[in-house]
Structure formats: structure tokens, C-alpha cells
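Run folding on both entries below.
>entry_1
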Amino acid sequence: MRKNRLHHLGAVLLAACISSAQAVSWVHQNIAAHGGSPARVFLMGHSAGAIHVATYLAQEQFQRVPGSGVVGALMLSALYDFTPELMAREPINKAYYGEDAAQWAARSARQGLLRTRVPLWLAYGELDPSSFVSEAEAMNKALCEAGRCPVFTRFTGHSHMSEIFSINSDDRHVADSMLAFVKSR
């Protein structure tokens, strides 16, 4: 299942978490009818969609299916820790996380991702905006320090959008890395 960039100005974090929970729940209830297995559900997101995936995994109170309902999560070019410094560089994220800086840490995915047992795949493009690069590197470092190193990849020559657009193209780097992660679970 793929969560696309669902960026609606004025949307709140709560709506994104509920949307993710509803999607996972629906897939679990209906995947067998389409030849799939509820024991093989992965979440994947890019940019804002990756932030939704990360936040869903981090906010257990929204998970309707036991154990998050997924066996792996793929996050391509996400932001994980919404600090005042990050919000100053990326103010559009206030549409999700609100204006109250006192709430940003609790709403960020970083701490919850350090607790989740779901295997993670994190990646970013070499030419991603600097906030996405530093967030990916910091999240990888924190996970490794917690003894939970994710599959972690930097895609050389890719920008924030070229990485996602490369899927199902002649450039197989991103798709092959994702597929290897899925097949390994």
C-alpha cells in the first residue's frame, strides 16, 4: 500500500493519523479478497506521505490493527523531528503540526520510531532539500544508536521528486532497493 503525498493546507496531524489507520484497517479486512495476505502489509510514503507513515507508526493510539498492522515501512524523504529550527526552515509543516511549538515534540515521529518493532527502510535523494537530508541522517543515527538500524539509502543524483518518479522507469535504483526490503521480510 502506498501513501501518496496528501498535502492539504489546513489538514491536521490527527486527520493524517486517522486516514493511515483507516487505510491499514481496510487493507487488513479486504486484502485476501484481492489475492493478498494481511500478514504481508507494508506502508510506503514519500515526502508528506512518508511523514504520515512515520507518524502512524509513532502514534500507537491510532493503530486499529494489533502491532501496527504492517510488517515493514518504507519512508522516502521524510521529516521526523519537528523542532522550532526545522519549523523555521519548513513552515508549511505547521499545517500538520499546528502553531503551538510546545506540542511539536510530542507530535513528531522520532521518539515513536525509536520504540516501534516494525522494520524500517529510510532513504533520501542526494539533491533533497537540506532539511530532508539532515533529518534522514539524524533518524538513521538515532535508530542505530538504539540498536535498530534501518535499511538506509542515499540515492545519488536524485532530487526530492526524481526519486519517486523513478519508480517504474528505466532507473531501477529506488524501486530495486524498495523491492529488496519487501522481499527480505
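>entry_2
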Amino acid sequence: MTAQREDNIYWNSKVYVLLGYSWATGLHRPLFSPSDYGLTIPKGLPTDCYRGFVCNYKVDNKKLILNDLEIYSDGSECLTINNVVPELMNEDCFVIYSEIKIPLTFTGRMRLADSFIQARYRHMGFQDPTSYNRIFDLDFIDGGLTSYKDQSSSFDDMRKTQKIVDDYFIKNYVPPRIKKRLHETFAFGRTSIVSQFSNTIDSFDPDKALRILDELEESKKDIHWFIECYLAYYNELHSYSHTFKQLEFVGIPFQLLSALQEIKGDTYQEETVGNRQLKPSCPAVQIAPLSWRAASQRSGNKSSIRLAG
């Protein structure tokens, strides 16, 4: 998906990007739907606007209105909306309804942004809130603005947390399920305006991801940390297409090979490695979440273990 065109909103004498919105009822429905006005989105949409339309909202005298609408057209005659006849906007076949001023009875929260950070641009979907220096949340009841809050500092903390986690990923191998836990602490959807909005930002804890990293540091003291991490890494690269017997050639000690076989359970039969029969040697335990890259290194004819990170 190409980077998508975003809706805008005019508020407090300034135009902002509308990052998203959340209805107080918890419903996920659009503020504007073409079908509500008898409009049909044709096929063959441009890649930067898969919705087929762009809305420009406005807070006028503390009332929320849809002020302008740009919508893709196949060249057929467009309907009149609120007594406004659309005009052809550009060669991309978009038409614009200017100043249609449709009042909206929205009850919920909107998230606005400006001062885009170009270095955080992503060429896919909608840009997430951490890509802007200034963030505001606006609360509405029946379309009337009731309050607003500057959330810029919260997202600044989130960016700092993301930087720490990203640096950690560069220096260490992290199993997919742990990556998911870390990303969920600050991730936003990019596929639609509604999905990228998190209404729980007031309870955002910038240290949550750091606490997960601390857990991983503690887990590293247990031999099972090494084992699960190696299994995850090996699974990503090879999907277990190789046998445990072949792991000996990358420097894994006999004791760890036995533990690996036990963790895998009954999936594989016992194998002979180095003329020795692998037997379970580690008691069954609940493996804690692990994260570091486990690597092995062979030096001459002597096996040695090196833990990267």
C-alpha cells in the first residue's frame, strides 16, 4: 500500500492533519460515507487514495462540519450535495465540493497533528502519530467541541521508547512473539484512519517496553533463555528443515542438544549425535519470554558458545 492521502481539519486558525477519531460509543464507523449521499466510488482508484475521497473538516464556532469534499469520479455526472455542484479538481479525476458545510453530530474524540517529522515518513498507509511534533485531542458531544488536550509530550516519550526498542533490535536477536509484545506498547494501525487511532493514550506508559527489556535481561540468566532463543532463530531461518544432529556442527554442546530435543517433545525421535544417544537431561520448565540473539561459534576442533548482545 502506498502512503495514503489524509483528511484535514481546520481548528484554532490552523489546518491540521486528522490522524483519527474514536466514537464515544466504541463503534468503528466513518464520519463520512459516500453512500449516505448517493455517491458511488468507481473502480481504478489512484494508489495514494484507496478510499476514493478526502474530507476537509472544520470547527466553526465550536461546531464540527464537513467543509470540503474531494471525491474520485469516473467522469459521469456527480450529484449535488447540500446545493453545491462539484467542480473538476485536477487531471486525476477528483472533483471537489467546496464549502458544503454539512453539520456532523459526532460524539467522541478526534486526534489532530501538525509539524511532520520527515525522517519518520513511511511510504505505506497513513502516517502514525509519532511522526508529528504536535498532537492534540479534541472531544465532541453531538458535534460540539467541549474540550481539547495537548498530547505532544506523550508522543515525544513514545518516540524515545521506540528509539530504544529499535536500537535493541539492531543489536540483539528478538523472537517474533517478544517483538510483538514490544510493538504493541506503541504501535498504531496504518490501513485506515479509524484503526490507527488509540483512545487510551491518556494511560500510555512509556516505560512498559523498557520493563519488557528488563524481563529479557533477567531471563538471560537461565539456560532455557538461550535454548528458546536459538530455537526461534533457527525456526525463522530454517523452519526446522535440519535435524538436531546437524546442530552439533555449529558448535552446540551435547548438553544443549539434549535439552533442545526435550523441549521439542515428541516431534522428533532420539538421534545419535557424536556417537552418543541423546537423552532428556533437563527437567520440564515453563520457559520465560526470551529475546537475545543466541549464536554459537566453533573454534578449531573445540566447541564454544558465544552469546551475542
